[in-house]
Automatic annotation (TrEMBL):
<protein>
    <submittedName>
        <fullName>VOC family protein</fullName>
    </submittedName>
</protein>
<dbReference type="Pfam" id="PF18029">
    <property type="entry name" value="Glyoxalase_6"/>
</dbReference>
<feature type="domain" description="VOC">
    <location>
        <begin position="4"/>
        <end position="118"/>
    </location>
</feature>
<dbReference type="InterPro" id="IPR029068">
    <property type="entry name" value="Glyas_Bleomycin-R_OHBP_Dase"/>
</dbReference>
<dbReference type="InterPro" id="IPR041581">
    <property type="entry name" value="Glyoxalase_6"/>
</dbReference>
<feature type="domain" description="VOC">
    <location>
        <begin position="125"/>
        <end position="239"/>
    </location>
</feature>
<dbReference type="InterPro" id="IPR037523">
    <property type="entry name" value="VOC_core"/>
</dbReference>
Amino acid sequence: MTSQLHALCIDANEPLRLARFWSGVLGWELEDDSDEGTTLLPSDDTGFRIRFLPTQEPKTGRNRMHFDLTSTSLDDQQRTVSTSLGLGAQHIDVGQRPEDGHVVLADPEGNEFCVIEPDNKFLADCGFIGALACDGSQEVGYFWSRALDWPLVWDQDQETAIRSPHGGPKITWGGPPLMPRTGRSRLRFDLALPARADQRAEVDRLVSLGATRIGTDRSEADGVLLADPDGHEFRVLAPASAIESHWC
């Protein structure tokens, strides 16, 4: 059985503060708060949780992944922007044009996200989190489609997108030119296996699809660290390490 997308992990200098920000924006519930981080549980069909993990490293450069939040009207878009600003977000310039309909913001630790205009057809059938928009190649889109067994919903001009058969956000990759890598990715995936699944076999399958083992070739207690074909890190959790999602 293939891995499931269990969590989006976000490195944070103040995990609880950042979790409270995103809880306020998304309307998700705070599950726990400990030295190991803080978790938000989805209140919609997103299908994965968000984990905020402590780090001492400051954010440098733009993230290779960000949220695209949808809107049902211009008033709804402005409400999301106003709510985000009130919780500690700020407007930022990433090169957007004056005629662009989306609003680009950064959360309290500088993580970029967009509030999309209401007439965006690509995200028309998606929930509030319309997409996880990623910097990445066509090859990495194909990899994640096979890794998660999610169908491609877009494959054109070297841009790709996948989506779970159960719904939820799309995951998109914008194709070349790619951003230069500047170290560890601040946003990363945790993959989960069902109980009694063979973690080693799943790691071998992902490697056969184009992933690379990082560090030692041994399973660690908190999961096996891999990199996708573009070099972005992700973990395959041991079956006992993950709580099964509501899509299992």
